[in-house]
Amino acid sequence: MEFTIIIIIFLILAMLIAVGIGANDETFSVVYGSKILTMRQVLIFAVILAIAGALLLGEGVAKTVGGSILASNFKITEAIVITVLLSTAIWLLVASAFGLPISTTHATIGSIIGIGIFLGDIAGLNWEMILYLAMWWILSPVVGFFGTYFAYKILYKYKQKRLNGFQDYEGYEKKFAFIVLITIFITAFARAGNDCSNAVGIVVGVGDIDISFLLIITGLSLAVGLVILGRLVITNLGEMTELRPSTAFAAQIPTAAIMLIGTIQKIPLSGSHMLVASLVGLAKASKTPMKKGLWKIMLVWILTFPVAGILAIILYFPIISFF
């Protein structure tokens, strides 16, 4: 297959995944659920930050995904790139169609791990890096849960001691409406830089393609996904538990901090896992009921790694026949 055709296929699949990532991005769900912004306002801000984050923060994490998961002696071929991109895209779009927030990071890396084991056995993977990333993946939702839990408790005690009457309460919530917006903007900016690696990281591993061009295409595709399908997941998570500006801040601050730090450290992370864990922590701290369907989200999380890996192996056979 001619190299030009291969590059076009890479770009189409990377754009498809980026659209799926945008469609599955629930970052603004807390400001929508707490009625700080309308859906139209959410989509405007989300589009701007998605493009900016991909362009300014995307390169580091993309290189981690493209060059550090597989063993150093493992050659990333065009067939492998197409396989990983296609399996990630299929699983992401299926989940988004049902309004379920999955981890694109886990889908991408699950695909890479699956094809790496299939073609290179255990030695085909950089296990030291995988274990290091796994530590971040395990700790980040734990931090999200407990960070939100204790943030809510601190804010609740403050309200009990300092606020008297409806006017005090309204003024308090208005201040947090502004604060939580800043927190969300930081999260969305960092998350775009982190998530775009799932669309272009494996492509970067091949080399010979301008990463700046890839990031521009990815940022625009993230924006398209947000506008077309993103509202489904935003609405679904925004209504998971009762939210006000102050509680939305408690739910978002751990995710903002971890996502920004992780992206700067070039670590591919799951914003979905952190936010859902934070919302569960919020519900536990405030003793409010969770929306039914949490078990479905948890099940999809568990299935993502094996399904993406198996799907990549299955897709590899017809794809390799073209090379």
Task: Give short descriptive properties of this protein.
single chain, 0% strand, mainly alpha
Q: Write the element-wise H/E pattern from the N-terminal end onward.
A: HHHHHHHHHHHHH
Strand content: under 5%
Number of domains: 1
Overall structural class, as computed from helix and strand content, comes to: mainly alpha
Helical stretch count? 13
| Major sheet size, sense and barrel closure | none
Instruction: Provide the low-confidence segments as ranges.
Output: none
Shape: elongated
Q: What is the overall pLDDT average?
A: 84
DSSP summary, beta strand count = 0
The helix fraction, in percent, is over 70%
**Alpha-carbon Rg, integer:** 20 Å
What is the end-to-end distance? 6 Å
Kindly describe this structure.
- This protein has 323 residues and is mostly helical.
- It has one domain (12-320).
- 80% of the residues lie in helices and 0% in strands.
- The protein contains 13 helices and no strands.
- It has helices at 3-23, 29-33, 39-67, 78-97, 104-120, 127-162, 165-195, 197-204, 211-228, 230-238, 245-264, 271-286, 294-320.
- The N and C termini lie close together (6 Å).
- The mean pLDDT is 84.
Please summarize what this structure is.
This protein has 323 residues and is mostly helical. Helices cover 80% and strands 0% of the residues. It starts with a helix and ends with a helix.
